[in-house]
Amino acid sequence: MLFNIQIIFIGVACIALLLLYLLRWRDYTLPQRRKCQQEALKEERPKISIIIPVSKEAALLEQNLPYFLEQQFPSFEVVVVNIASNAETSDVLKRLEAKYKNLRHTFVPKTSRYIDRQKLALTLGIRAAHSEWCVLTVPDCRPASNLWLATMTQNLKPITIGYGNYIDDGSNLARCAIYERLCAQLRVLRAGFQGKACGADGTNLIISKQLFLDNQGFAGSLELPFGSCALLVDQLATEENVCFVWDTKATMLQELPSTLILHNEKMYLAELRKHLSKNAYWWALREAFASWAFYIFLFTEAVYIASRIYESTTAEAYKLTHLFTDIPSLLLLMCWMITPIILFRQLTKQLELRKYGVLLHHYALLQPFRTFINKIRSLKHQEDFIRPIV
């Protein structure tokens, strides 16, 4: 009787492991597969406008703007949209405009009300752009190379989504933040791979000006003071008008924020999911299923091992029939331990990130609890999700 129950547990563990691969681990191979499936490069490169909204961030502008302005690309401009001007920001812009002829700036009128100023800044920047193609990014970011723009525009589509992540300072905070952000972008990549992207990282996005204006830009998401790019892509993306660029030369690097800001960003993300489409909800549910598979696998293996320990203390000798369950159980544990580490290591090599090893299992173990905590925090801070009137 106990032997039959053990066989059932091994079967359940096998199914759970297969679900883990299908729902989570195989996503680690997507960037390499997408790279292999890229279309032939286009010879003609259109003019590009890089839109950067800023708010009293003079130091970041002086540090990061040269990385954008010194791109090896035939024709592009950088448009800085000043949300909250001060003398220091104006001085930096004037100094850089004197040095770089492809830099110009505009501003958000102080009288603007009833609209989130970040969305208004992006809208004004896109309208002021001299080109059809607009890159949306933020001032605390910088391209990983001077070929960033050339690589991002190799296969332009109305929505072109690039990879971006935090700068790794070697800390455990950076390691965890980079992992979580990478996994979130992998889910968007998988969604786009199977039909419709359900969001985007807000630091490395190209959008067609015509597409933006024809669909009234952020008109469908004015009630939220965050998640601009994710909501925009979720609204406008189709199977035909989106492409992804995952290349180290096209990576966008962002300054690692404080622990408090990272926690707030996770809280905003938990709230943002409520405002995305049903397609995005399905992909969030898919990730929940992967976590369930993870825990079901651990539970069934733990119960099997406990039953075998109990049997070994009561049986006089080892029964050869147990080889039919002991060997599969051991093989399943080895696959569970090794497979994600190997697949994720291939991904981190491609993106030039450090190794994660068994930390993957640690993060997966804690993920449902972190998700639950973020949802609770979002419920306690509902007033922060109301668009301010300025």
UniProtKB/TrEMBL annotation:
The keyword Membrane applies. The keyword Mitochondrion does not apply. GO terms for molecular function: transferase activity. It holds the Pfam family Glycos_transf_2. The chain crosses the membrane at residues 6-25, 283-307, 327-344. It comes from the Bacteria. Keywords: Membrane, Transferase, Transmembrane, Transmembrane helix. Residues 49-152 form the Glycosyltransferase 2-like domain. This is Glycosyltransferase involved in cell wall biosynthesis. The lineage of its organism: Bacteria, Pseudomonadati, Bacteroidota, Bacteroidia, Bacteroidales.
